[in-house]
C-alpha cells in the first residue's frame, strides 16, 4: 500500500489531499491569504501534511504531487515562473524541500 500527498495551490484556497493507492482518503482545504508568501505557504503545507499523515496512521509517503499556477521544470523540480502572489517561489528547489521534510 502506497500513500501520496497531492497539493493544489489555488488563488483563494489551498487543497491538500491524502491518497492511499488511488483512493482519496481525506482532503483538507485552507484559505490562501493574499498576503502570504511562498515560504509561509510551505509552513501551512507542512502542518497540514503532518496532520493528514497522523490522521491516516501512515508511516511513509511514496510521493507528493503539486499543482500550482506557474511553469515547473519537471526534470529538476524547480519553479521557473509563477503568478505574482508567489513570486518568491521562483527557482525554489521543490525536490530538496520534499526530501528535507518527508524523506
From TrEMBL:
Its EC number is 2.7.1.85. The keyword Oxidoreductase does not apply. One of its GO terms (molecular function) is beta-glucoside kinase activity. Keywords: Kinase, Transferase. It is an enzyme of class 2 (transferase). Pfam families: ROK. This is Beta-glucoside kinase. It comes from termite gut metagenome.
Amino acid at each position: 500500500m502506497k500513500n501520496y500527498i497531492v497539493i493544489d495551490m489555488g488563488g483563494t484556497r489551498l487543497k491538500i489531499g491524502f491518497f492511499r493507492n488511488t483512493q482519496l482518503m481525506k482532503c483538507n482545504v485552507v484559505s490562501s491569504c493574499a498576503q502570504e508568501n511562498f515560504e509561509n505557504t510551505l509552513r501551512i503545507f507542512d502542518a497540514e501534511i503532518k496532520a493528514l499523515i497522523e490522521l491516516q496512521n501512515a508511516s511513509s509517503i511514496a510521493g507528493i504531487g503539486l499543482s500550482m499556477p506557474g511553469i515547473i521544470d519537471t526534470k529538476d523540480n524547480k519553479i521557473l515562473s509563477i503568478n505574482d502572489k508567489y513570486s518568491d517561489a521562483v527557482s525554489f528547489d521543490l525536490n530538496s524541500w520534499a526530501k528535507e521534510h518527508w524523506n
